[in-house]
C-alpha cells in the first residue's frame, strides 16, 4: 500500500505543475514581480546599513546571508504547505474535506502533493543568488563542517516552517476557522529578517519558543558566524539542527489530534 502511494505522489505533482504552467508568460511575470518585491525589502535593509554600518553587530554581507537563508527556508517549506493548508479552511467549511477522508490515501499527502506550489520559484531564485553572493562576501573561513552545518540547518529550518504552517492549517479541522492565525505567523516571520538581538527580551523569547521562527533564520546563521545568540547561547547550533525534526513530530501529533476531532461540515 505504501509503495502504491509513493508511486501516486509524482503523478499528483506533475498534474498540478502542468496546470500552473498552462500560461507560462503570466507565470514568469508573476515570479519576476516576486523577485522585485523581496528585492525591495532587501534594498531597504541596505539603506539602513548605509546609514548605520552595522545592525546589531551584523555587517551587510552577514545580513545578506541571514535574509537569503530565511527566504530560502520559508520558500521551500511553504511550497509544501502554505497554500494547501490555507485552503483547508475552505474545504472544511464547504464539507469538501469529507471526500478526502474516503479516499484510499492520506488526506495530508493528497493535499500537499496535489497542490505543490511552484509559485515560490521567484523566492528561491532570489534567495539562491543572494546566498551565493553572501557566502563569497562574508568575512568567514568556510570549511567542510561549516558548509555541512549550513545545509543541515537549512533543511531543519525548512521542516520547521512546514510544520508550523501545517499546525495552523490543521486547526481548521477543530475550529473551522484558522486562517487568521496565518496573520500572526507572518507578523512574527517578518521580524526574523533581522538579528534576534535587536529585539526586546520578550519578543526574543517568543521567537524561540511559542513561535520559534528565529530558529529558521538568525539563530542558525548567527551560530554559524559565531554571533552571540540571546537565551540559547552555545546551544544555538544544536537547537537549530534538532528544531525541525522535533516540530515535525509535534505537527504529526497535532494533525492526528485535529483529524480525530473533526466532525464534518455539520460540526
Automatic annotation (TrEMBL):
<feature type="transmembrane region" description="Helical">
    <location>
        <begin position="235"/>
        <end position="255"/>
    </location>
</feature>
<protein>
    <submittedName>
        <fullName>ABC-2 family transporter protein</fullName>
    </submittedName>
</protein>
<keyword id="KW-0812">Transmembrane</keyword>
<keyword id="KW-0472">Membrane</keyword>
<feature type="transmembrane region" description="Helical">
    <location>
        <begin position="196"/>
        <end position="215"/>
    </location>
</feature>
<feature type="transmembrane region" description="Helical">
    <location>
        <begin position="32"/>
        <end position="52"/>
    </location>
</feature>
<dbReference type="InterPro" id="IPR010390">
    <property type="entry name" value="ABC-2_transporter-like"/>
</dbReference>
<keyword id="KW-1133">Transmembrane helix</keyword>
<feature type="transmembrane region" description="Helical">
    <location>
        <begin position="142"/>
        <end position="175"/>
    </location>
</feature>
<dbReference type="Pfam" id="PF06182">
    <property type="entry name" value="ABC2_membrane_6"/>
</dbReference>
<feature type="transmembrane region" description="Helical">
    <location>
        <begin position="64"/>
        <end position="83"/>
    </location>
</feature>
<feature type="transmembrane region" description="Helical">
    <location>
        <begin position="108"/>
        <end position="136"/>
    </location>
</feature>
Amino acid at each position: 500500500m505504501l509503495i502504491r502511494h509513493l508511486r501516486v505522489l509524482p503523478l499528483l505533482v506533475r498534474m498540478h505543475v502542468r496546470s500552473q504552467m498552462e500560461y507560462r508568460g503570466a507565470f514568469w511575470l508573476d515570479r519576476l514581480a516576486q523577485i522585485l518585491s523581496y528585492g525591495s525589502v532587501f534594498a531597504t535593509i541596505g539603506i539602513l546599513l548605509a546609514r548605520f554600518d552595522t545592525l546589531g553587530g551584523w555587517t551587510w554581507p552577514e545580513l545578506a546571508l541571514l535574509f537569503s537563508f530565511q527566504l530560502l527556508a520559508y520558500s521551500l517549506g511553504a511550497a509544501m504547505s502554505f497554500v494547501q493548508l490555507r485552503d483547508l479552511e475552505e474545504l472544511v467549511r464547504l464539507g469538501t474535506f469529507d471526500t478526502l477522508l474516503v479516499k484510499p490515501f492520506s488526506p495530508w499527502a493528497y493535499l500537499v502533493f496535489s497542490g505543490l506550489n511552484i509559485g515560490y520559484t521567484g523566492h528561491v531564485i532570489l534567495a539562491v543568488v543572494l546566498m551565493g553572493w553572501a557566502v563569497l562576501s562574508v568575512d568567514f573561513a568556510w570549511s567542510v563542517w561549516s558548509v555541512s552545518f549550513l545545509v543541515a540547518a537549512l533543511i531543519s529550518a525548512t521542516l520547521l516552517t512546514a510544520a508550523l504552517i501545517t499546525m495552523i492549517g490543521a486547526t481548521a479541522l477543530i475550529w473551522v476557522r484558522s486562517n487568521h492565525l496565518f496573520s500572526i505567523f507572518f507578523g512574527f516571520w517578518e521580524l526574523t529578517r533581522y538579528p534576534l538581538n535587536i529585539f526586546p527580551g520578550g519578543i526574543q523569547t517568543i521567537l524561540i519558543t511559542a513561535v520559534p521562527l528565529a530558529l529558521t533564520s538568525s539563530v542558525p546563521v548567527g551560530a554559524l558566524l559565531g554571533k552571540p545568540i540571546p537565551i540559547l547561547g552555545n546551544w544555538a547550533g544544536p537547537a537549530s539542527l534538532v528544531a525541525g525534526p522535533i516540530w515535525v513530530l509535534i505537527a504529526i501529533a497535532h494533525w492526528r489530534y485535529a483529524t480525530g476531532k473533526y466532525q464534518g461540515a455539520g460540526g
